[in-house]
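TASK: fixed-backbone design
INPUT:
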């Protein structure tokens, strides 16, 4: 392969909302809602017509998930026991949409870090879990907002694996010669599709946007990450679902059901996804001739600290420390496709020339993606 069709990651960008919610704040508001609900429905609960709701707990959340806080775009309404949902007023068509806006912020940072002008970029892939509208594509709006001029953009959704699927798509454009510079952008407003009244999942998600600039090696900045190999996998499962969609309005009686928000069988996901992902990483490393002792760092999907501990152990052959498998779950929570990219963005500058690492995602679908990278400095 020549430098003209060798794909590399030139730079990444990160937009973090200014507001964050601690577990203490979240649980206090959730428990106030539970008390209100149980008080208002006392008679119906006593008659067995309505279920009594249970309090949430900070200790449970930290032990079960490793999450301590999450960033959000609209804090106060989420914490208001009467509302418990972000409030984001609809914007006129002339104004940039909120999803595109946060995507642009992350993209601009990636471009500055790579020393690249928007007009040098050939394509934008907006790869995320929840797209704000059907069309025009958010990616095309981002292309316009960045002032890219020529080129093209489109949206893609593979839930938590959207970023790695986007990286492979971008890398394939570079390999085939159909583009030299591709922005993969992951704006994730997970707070919008989270049921903040559901004790089992109200603590899981946060908002953020990341961007990855995938380019041909011959135009990349001196310091970059060569993409050594990528692999994608999907396997159908109903264990993580969101049934929101454009046909909901055609079935008015089920339009407002809670399964139009994020729902999951968390235990099953944990049990089924850990072995699937560990095996996928080991097999792909073997194909690429990479030993587990060659792997300097794992930037894993940030859904659950326990899942990452088990996957890292199976891949590395020993319990990983924070340096080998850094977490951002404690401060960002699960940010779907952006999680592994935040970890990479924040914890990759210290690696040396020749170091090999792995960006890995997994989630709804099921879906999983591996991107092995080698630092060039
Ligand atoms: N406080 C106190 N107790 C609680 C709470 C709470 N908040 N919630 C549950 N409990 C109780 C339960 O009632 C249960 O009690 P009992 O034993 O008496 O029945 C006990 O705690 C244990 O409950 P669980 O079995 O549910 O708890 P787990 O230990 O399994 O932990 C987790 C739950 C944290 C959800 C865990 O299963 C997990 O993380 N699994 C992996 C999930 C995962 O990775 N999902 C990926 C989904 S993300 C994705 O693909 C992107 C989708 C799109 C994102 C955007 C949408 C917003």
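OUTPUT:
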């Amino acid at each position: 392969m020549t430098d003209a069709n060798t794909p590399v990651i030139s730079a990444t960008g990160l937009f973090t909302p200014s507001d964050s919610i601690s577990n203490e704040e979240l649980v206090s508001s959730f428990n106030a809602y539970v008390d209100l609900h149980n008080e208002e429905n006392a008679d119906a609960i006593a008659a067995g017509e309505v279920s009594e709701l249970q309090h949430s707990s900070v200790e449970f959340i930290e032990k079960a998930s490793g999450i301590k806080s999450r960033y959000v775009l609209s804090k106060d309404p989420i914490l208001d026991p009467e509302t418990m949902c972000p409030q984001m007023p609809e914007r006129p068509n002339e104004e940039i949409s909120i999803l595109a806006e946060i995507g642009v912020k992350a993209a601009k940072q990636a471009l500055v870090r790579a020393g690249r002008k928007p007009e040098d970029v050939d394509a934008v892939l907006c790869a995320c879990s929840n797209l704000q509208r059907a069309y025009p594509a958010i990616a095309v709006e981002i292309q316009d907002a960045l002032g890219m001029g020529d080129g093209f953009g489109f949206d893609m959704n593979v839930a938590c694996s959207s970023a790695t699927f986007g990286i492979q798509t971008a890398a394939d454009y570079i390999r085939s010669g159909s583009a030299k510079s591709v922005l993969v952008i992951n704006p994730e407003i997970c707070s919008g599709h989270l049921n903040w009244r559901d004790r089992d999942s109200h603590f899981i998600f946060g908002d953020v946007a990341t961007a990855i600039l995938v380019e041909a090696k011959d135009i990349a900045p001196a310091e970059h990450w060569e993409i050594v190999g990528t692999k994608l996998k999907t396997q159908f499962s109903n264990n993580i679902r969101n049934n929101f969609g454009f046909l909901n309005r055609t079935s008015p009686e089920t339009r407002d059901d809670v399964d139009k928000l994020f729902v999951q069988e968390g235990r099953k996901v944990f049990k089924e996804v850990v072995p699937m992902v560990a095996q996928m990483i080991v097999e792909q490393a073997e194909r690429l001739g990479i030993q587990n002792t060659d792997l300097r760092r794992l930037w894993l999907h940030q859904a659950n600290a326990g899942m990452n501990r088990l996957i890292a152990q199976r891949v590395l052959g020993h319990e990983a420390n924070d340096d080998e498998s850094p977490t951002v779950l404690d401060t960002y929570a699960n940010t779907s496709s952006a999680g592994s990219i935040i970890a990479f963005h924040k914890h990759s500058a210290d690696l040396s020339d020749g170091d090999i690492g792995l960006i890995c995602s997994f989630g709804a679908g099921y879906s999983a993606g591996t991107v092995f990278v080698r630092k060039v400095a």
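COMMENT: The first strand starts at residue 7 and ends at 15.
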